[in-house]
Each structure stands twice: as C-alpha cells, then as structure tokens.
Amino acid sequence: MTGRFAPSPTGRMHIGNIYSALLSWLSAKGQGGEWILRIEDLDPQRSRREYALQIEDDLRWLGLQWDRGGTADSADGVKYMQSCRTDIYAHYLNELESKGVTYPCYCTRADILAAVQAASGAPHESDGRIIYPGTCRPSTKGEAKMEQETIAQGEIQKKKSTSGNSSGKASTRLIVPDRTIHFIDRHYGPQAVNLATHCGDFVLRRADGAWAYQLAVVVDDALMGVTEVVRGRDLLLSSAQQIYLYELLGFPAPSFAHLPLLINEQGQRLSKRDRSLDMQHLRSLYTPEQLIGIIAHAAHLIDRPEPISLSELLSLFSWSSIPTADILVRP
Ligand code: GLU
Ligand code: ZN
C-alpha cells in the first residue's frame, strides 16, 4: 500500500500539519507500506519553494522520512511538486473536455453570489460553501463539447455572462450530476454525499489558469499509486467530488481515512496564525520525541504526553484509539 502527505507550502508547518503527517505515516508504516511526500504548490501567489524546503527540514527533524517525493529530482523522473506537473493536468482536463463533461464559466465571484442570492435569498450554505448555480452550464453535453472546442480555437466570447470577469478568460467547470456518492471512510464510516447539493459544478481550472486542487489531487494520487488518503476531516465531503473524478477518469479510487481536527478553545480549527504552535516555535521548545509524544497523546494513542520514539509509537498505533470528535489543543 502507499500513503502520502500532501502539504501546501504556504508557510511554516504548524502542529496540525505535523499531526496529519504523523498519522498518515503511522497508518502507512503500520501496514508495511510506503509513504510519499507531494508538495501541493498549485497556488502560485501563496506557494514558495523555501517553504517546501522548510517542510522537508521539519519532517526530517521529526524523523518522518518519505520513501518517494519531495522537492528533489527523483531517479524515476516523476515530479512530486504540483507546479511541475501542469502538462499532466492539462492532459487529463483534455480527456474530460473530450467527454463533453466540462464547460467554460465566465462568472466572477460577485456574479455567482448575486445569482445564488436571487435564486434563494440566501448567500450560501450555513457552513459558508457557495454552490455554483449553473449559470454557464450548457443544456446538452454536445453543447458543452462545442463550447470547449470554441475556446480551443481561441474564439473566446463573453457570451454567457452579463458582467463577466475583467480578464475575459473562462474557468473550466465539471458538470456534476444530481447523484449521491456513497463511500466508507475508514474512520468516520459510511458517507453519502449528493454532488449537486454539496458542491454543484466545480472548477477544474481557474480563470487565471491555475489548476484546481480537486483535479490535481485525483490525478496525482492516481498516478503516484496512492492507495490510502489520510487527512483532516475538513476534506471528508470533498472525497465525493474526488471519487466522481476517479470514476470519470477510469482510475480506481484510494481508501479514505479522515482525522478529527485540532481545534482551539473557541472551537476553531488551529491555523497558521497561531504562531505559538508553528514549527519554528515548537522546535525551540521540544525535542522531536517530546513533540511526537504530545501529538500522540492528543490523538489518544498514548496515555500521557511523554517523549516517545517513532518506532515505539508505531507498535502502539491503532485507528480505533483515535477519537472522532475534534481535539482541543492548548498552546
Ligand atoms: N494540500 C492540502 C492541504 O495542505 C491537503 C490535501 C489532501 O491531503 O488531499 O490542506
Ligand atoms: Zn459561470
């Protein structure tokens, strides 16, 4: 089996990132599998190579050694930095386009908000998600394909949107059916997520040309041979979008195991803003074994937050010890 850790290099790692890294490593190594490091630097504005190098340094400091991936060129020629994989994403987007399941969307965020508000009176779902109302969706698959071809010929026209975005460039959206995706999360059990009501037609490539996480994560996990995805439960529901993409692209889907989130006293997910919990600060306070002990204790893998080596923790690791409720961490 193959597990992975897929951080976005947008800053110094914090305790939440280390916790995801540690648990995905434990799960993979507990099954005798390999563990890969993929750098998710899709967002050109926020990602920096120096952060990726820092992530590698922090993982090495902890002793979490990846079997494949990272920033260095690999012997097999595979690139593990998403910014180096854009031709691959273009290839698979093209495959979806030729199936007639995508279409260009000219809506700005303001257009979408206005359309959603006009339709329902409410700006978005209670959890802040905005479901794309399908403004630019063509009425038939044939029409979707024709529109994509028109774009390919460079005849971009702002025909659908009344206001349109200022660049005149389109994002590419995937047509999602009104279908419920069923899957079993290893930790959270059976899930049923309706694509139309959960997300609607979602973006595969942004209007500025940046690749969307959903497309890249599926293509990469599939091509890199990842068979188990371990990550925070904030991404639990988006697994349904990913399973649908696996199906369209003809790849087998991996198994999913989501983790409870680390939260603060206000019940908010720990973020990069909590400086006292970032690796720069944590490394100044603790040894690797102390920090691993603290995280293992938070995850209910050990009874006391005492120093522990990775190999000892590996022998104690079990998914059944990990809670499903989010975990309070005090700085
Ligand atoms: N790059 C994502 C993040 O750092 C992780 C995505 C995933 O694990 O699928 O939040
Ligand atoms: Zn649109």
In short:
This protein is an alpha/beta fold and 331 residues long. 36% of the residues lie in helices and 14% in strands. The radius of gyration is 21 Å and the shape is globular.
Written account of the structure:
This protein is an alpha/beta fold and 331 residues long. The protein has eleven helices and twelve strands. The chain has helices at 15-30, 49-62, 86-98, 109-120, 141-152, 195-198, 213-223, 238-249, 279-285, 288-298, 310-316, and strands at residues 2-5, 34-37, 68-69, 102-105, 171-174, 180-185, 189-194, 203-205, 228-232, 255-259, 262-263, 327-328. The strands form five sheets. It has a three-stranded parallel sheet with strand order 1-2-3, with helices on one face. It has a three-stranded antiparallel sheet with strand order 4-5-8. Strands 6-7 form a two-stranded antiparallel ribbon. Helix 7 packs across helix 8 (238-249). The longest helix is centred in the N-terminal third of the chain and has 16 residues, at 15-30. The radius of gyration is 21 Å and the shape is globular. The two termini are 35 Å apart. It binds glutamic acid and zinc ion.
Topology, pairings included?
Elements: E1 2-5, H1 15-30, E2 34-37, H2 49-62, E3 68-69, H3 86-98, E4 102-105, H4 109-120, H5 141-152, E5 171-174, E6 180-185, E7 189-194, H6 195-198, E8 203-205, H7 213-223, E9 228-232, H8 238-249, E10 255-259, E11 262-263, H9 279-285, H10 288-298, H11 310-316, E12 327-328
Parallel strand pairs: 1-2, 2-3, 9-10, 11-12
Antiparallel strand pairs: 4-5, 5-8, 6-7
The structure holds glutamic acid (GLU) and zinc ion.
